[in-house]
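Fold description:
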Amino acid sequence: MPCILLASQSRARRRILDQAGIHYKVCSPSFDEEAAKIDLVTSQASLIKSASTLALGKAKRGSLDFPNGICVGSDQLCSLEGKWLNKPKDGGEVSSQLDDVSGKTVTYTTAISLCENGQEVWQHVEEIRVQYRNLSFAQKEWYIKQRSEESFQKEGLLLIEGVGIQLIESIEGSNSGLLGLPVIPLIGELQRRGLLEV
């Protein structure tokens, strides 16, 4: 039975697999994500195409770097009114993004790719829509103080499994999809392939 590999260092994605009882190993594929993003922006690729391409790039490279397993690659892009919301680089960008999303719906596009020996064998994409509350100045200042600049750079604007939940009015879609790894469809495919114990 091939080993399940996760091409991600994300704590949230690891926690999702751990809680689901899936045995896996973490790998760090030699995939240049930033260069791929620049190409996608330059070509004006759609959000679905972009997330799918990035997930595939990670999974494909991971399955080539570690050929004895089936590799799970995942990527998530965040958009407001059709425009990408990148992870904020500093406090100024955090404040600006909170102003932008206040009272609005933000779409999180999450893609998963499964690759084996450099070939994609399955892919899934879903969109999660998050309605943000109308945020007061005090709420925004409080939220910024709860998190470090490094946290925003690594995890993006919304920390749903923490204090970020206070910013949200409603969520349309799966919680695991919002966290970056839609686990229910993934489990279904892994079961279909006989890669889980049950």
Summary: The helical segments are 11-19, 33-42, 47-65, 91-101, 137-146, 149-155, 175-178, 183-192. The radius of gyration is 17 Å. The chain has one domain: 3-192. The longest strand covers residues 119-132.
